[in-house]
User: Fold this.
Amino acid sequence: MISKKVNSVKEALEGVKNDMTFMLGGFGLCGIPENAIAELVEKNINGLTCISNNAGVDDFGLGLLLHGKQIKKMISSYVGENDEFERQMLSGELDVELIPQGTLAERCRAAQSGFPAIYTPAGFGTEVAKGKETREFDGKMYVLEHAFKADFSFVKAWKGDTAGNLIFKGTARNFNPVMCGAAKITVAEVEELVPAGELDPNQIHIPGIFVQRIFQGEKYEKRIEQRTVRTK
Assistant:
């Protein structure tokens, strides 16, 4: 069986360079590829286009890349927790494409499945549909949305094996699965990496065919974006 294992995050990110387009899994701060993001910050590459549900917070997640002015364009559906994002967007320093969350997921899934585009009713009659092809199906109007084209997908899973098979845990099973195989190269970081054949086939969420590189991450902070607790 082909091994997808690489020995470090540095090896996993070989080939990344300026002006590339990246997909990054996660929802809020849940299930984000922390190790990959940290390495992108360390590499100090610039001119990036990042496709992600959100842009992290000011001092964590994609917020670290924004702070270093490494991102030129964000394609997202929710960015309300990041003051630096807001500042760069309003000042014109950052190009932003805001799209409906479901459309974001389906444009990832289209790329994963090899479809060039999809039709969706989301956004018809709004700014989202401006300049895009529309078409009627069964009396309802739809907007044509093109599949994403990305150089790398960076995803994070709970457990994986050396063949690239992945299992996600809880809410971390968000945008990570649909981004696997949706770019030229998918890099998966996992909390636990086991030999091929040790995972229960019935529990695997993403088969290894969608992953090109896998490594065991470390020092996960797993921050909570909005901590809400009951009063005593």
The helical segments are 9-12, 34-43, 63-67, 83-91, 101-113, 176-179. Residues 101-113 form the longest helix (13 residues).
